[in-house]
Write a structure and sequence with these properties.
Elements (H helix, E strand, L loop, with lengths): L10 H11 L8 E3 L1 H7 L2 E5 L10 H10 L3 H6 L1 E4 L3 H13 L3 E5 L5 H9 L3 E4 L4 H15 L2 E2 L6 H17 L5 E5 L4 H13 L4 E7 L4 H7 L21 H10 L2 E5 L1 H15 L9 H8 L8 E5 L7 H14 L3 E9 L4 H12 L2 E8 L9 E9 L3 H13 L3 E4 L4
Parallel strand pairs: 2-10, 3-4, 3-6, 4-5, 7-8, 7-10, 8-9
Antiparallel strand pairs: 1-2, 11-13, 11-14, 12-13
Helix pairs in contact: 1-3, 1-8, 3-5, 3-8, 5-6, 8-9, 9-11, 10-11, 12-13, 12-14, 15-16
Length: 409
Amino acid sequence: MDAPTKTRPTIDDIRAAAERIKGSVIRTPMMMSRTLSEIADAEVWLKFENLQFTAAYKERGALNKLLQLNESERARGVVAASAGNHAQAVAYHGRRLGIPVTIVMPVSTPMIKVTQTEGHGAHVVLRGERFDDAYTHARELEAKDGYVFVHPFDDVAVMAGAGTVALEMLEDAPELDTLVIPIGGGGLISGVATAAKAIKPGIKVVGVEAELYPSMKNVVEGGHGAIGGDTLAEGIAVKEPGQLTRAIIADLVDRIDLVGEKDIEHSVAMLVAIEKSVVEGAGAAGLAAILAQPERFRGRKIGTTLCGGNIDTHLLANVLVRELVRCGRIARLRIAAQDRPGALAAITAKFYESGVNIIETNHHRIFTRLPAKDTVIEVECEARDAQAIDTLVKHLEGAGFHVERAELD
């Protein structure tokens, strides 16, 4: 079947893609996590696609597409629309193959992503406020300048390249009975489900979307979930899923789960703490689904793809600190006290007795509902565990202080 009319990859396409890209992308590790398996009461295997050179699985599909261009198409060059991992994948492998690359990004794209993409040799055009605007302009450049458009997900060659992930997962862990795969536009799960169901027809494939962006679930399952908002999993925050991918997902994916922001944050933090691995929000969505609803996965042999590791370091720091707050190791206490000499010393003595470290203190004398002779002392503190802070609060209240604890959620 000719490429323009072909609407879905086959297992043969995926095996051919694996041979085509072999040696040019990393065959990433696939390892069972003993600790996460104990937590989930299941056998949890992780595919570390965040260890690709551009830190995401996107290289597989982009390279498979580029390698199938003829000499005329290579000479004309390619264009893509992306604000993230697809941009870097196309740029990196385009430069390796000597193919001119133009990437259209929204104006709002963080400068670090722009410079990284330019660093791989691509010509970056900033256009529009949203991805849809950048996508429209990229298609205009395709028509005007004769570029070949490299779609981030709705392309048979791109899906086939992504499907090579499943070949490796099942080679390394053939006993898997469930795959849990993040969904954005649907390219990764389309390729993975195609390969997995061909190799092992009884295997279950579960898709995962961010709760704020249930676009594929809406289309495939007839839902009406609201779409939009700031998500940590921006890599799968797609408003309009693929046309080709939605048909494949409807046929081959057993169900689509949604995960909330708190669960995505928790899984990113767990991967740093347990696996010593940095994974972006979209890449941690599969694990988030497993940890958020363990009863749906209990006793199963699960493989999930850590499909990307490109997270802003400042954002990662925030996620890790928020995790410490959620597990009770960091707290912010508002302590009401009389504004007199010795009050602060009495409070800090209780911190010392409880073994809790003070990170920061603030006095509030004016903007408070307390009487003029009183004050609010706000203390940010850190302890070895949640119990130490609970003990501190009891000591403070036992000494006559009124204590309020700031909540994160």
